[in-house]
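Checklist before submission:
- one chain only
- standard amino acids only
- sequence pasted in full

Submission:
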Amino acid sequence: MKAAAEWYEQHRDGLGLEFTDRVLETIDRIAEHPLAHRKVIAEARRANLEQFPYALWYTVEPKDGSIVIGCLHAKRHPRIARERLLGSKWKGPEPS
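Returned file contents:
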């Protein structure tokens, strides 16, 4: 996320801050309604950012309700999210 914010800031003053604001808004949406987004890969869910081609990937942990988040560009193959969220040993079907 930091690298993406820096990249946007280099391209236009203030754009990196806008990116960070959209990430924080999305985190707030997830915190308020963690089950609002459909499962995409096993238990992993994806919440798209407004204005930017990024998504926050997360799981809701059953033990304590904590949320694990990863931020990936929308053009990245979903396999990357699967590997980061579920580990490289995932043997299930490819995400759609």
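Reviewer check: Residues 2-86 form a domain with the YaeB-like fold fold (CATH 3.30.2310).
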